Amino acid sequence: MTSGIGSLMRLVGSLAVFLVLPVEAAASDSQLAVGSAKTQLNAALQAHFRGVYRNETLDTQEWRGEETFDLWLHADGSRTLNVLTNLAARSALFDVNLRSDAQFNPLEAFVRYWNQGVYKGSGHFWVEGHQLQITSAGPLGRQSDSLAVPASWSMGSHPVSADGWHTARFDPTGEPVQTVSLLSIDASADVSKPVSGRFVPLKIEFIGEETLEVPAGRFVTQHYRLAGLNDIWVTEPHRIVIKSEIPVRNLRYVLTEWVSAGSGMVMSDEVESRR
Fold it and tell me: Which of 52, 127, 151, 230 has the fewest CB atoms inside 10 Å of its own CB, making it the most exposed?
């Protein structure tokens, strides 16, 4: 019996090394970039992060939905972002997978949209040389298109967690307000329009550096304004959006959970209790 108890205690002790007590909110992104044993054994991966946003009204903090994401960093410097956005207030569900190179240049995307309770369809976007190939499928059937890509551009697939990648197109040595090219993907509830995209101008304004505290922790961020109305706070080096606000629409997204594969839960907000 004593031997059995001793074995149990050794097992508990070995498990304890994988449990991380909550750290202070000042934890930086660089402190969290620790790969798990499973990640380190995979030559295609260098690190893995996971996060959750709460979607709420600005004035009353009423729950409107949430967004979860997984960010995978690869050995060649590229990134894969998997996102599921539950827009409960709009009866919408966005399932998005994005891939970029080390400089956040878009390489490929797959999106699947529900909006107003209706399935709109899916779209596959991938870069071939100087062309963007597009294949969409949905109520209209299968459609294909091809667009010439600008030298520098970003992909607008609608998840908040991907909005930080737009800011990589901002030149910090240039003017405080710059215009970049954005591929705007149609995610509307109008099923007469396929899940395709077109290039539109996107104005990006750099507001300044700010230290921001949210339920997921305290972060040094760069504050940007997109299209003159969407304020986002982004942290380096992976351009994670910490908070996003659109005052004219009374909307806010705030990071409530931030998990590093190697260190476990860093901070968490009790989302259920706030609904």
Answer: 151
Residue 129 belongs to a domain = yes
Which DSSP state fits 213?
A: E
Alpha helical stretches, state H, the chain: 2-16, 29-32, 37-40, 160-163
Instruction: Tell me, yes or no, whether 55 lies in a domain.
Output: yes
Whole-number Å distance between alpha carbons of 50 and 36? 13
pLDDT at res. 134: 98
**Is there a domain that residue 229 lies in?**
yes
| C-alpha to C-alpha distance for 33 and 30, rounded to whole angstroms | 5
Which amino acid does the sequence have at 215? P
Lowest mean per-residue pLDDT among 30-34, 44-48, 172-176, 203-207:
30-34
SS3 22: coil
Range of the domain at 182: 22-274
CA distance 227 to 202: 6
Pairing of strands 251-260, 45-57: antiparallel
| Model confidence pLDDT, tens digit, residues 71-123 | 999 999 999 999 999 999 999 999 999 999 999 999 999 999 999 999 999 99
36-70 pLDDT tens trace: 445 556 888 889 999 999 999 999 999 999 999 99
Q: How many domains does the chain have?
A: 1
Cα gap 10→232, rounded to integer Å: 47
How far CA 135 is from CA of 99, 125, 141, 157, 195, in Å, comes to 16, 7, 11, 15, 8
pTM over 0.85: no
DSSP string, 111-134: EEEEETTEEEEEEEEEEETTEEEE
d(CA 258, CA 268): 7
In a domain, 15, yes or no: no
Integer Cα distance of 96 and 146 in angstroms: 20
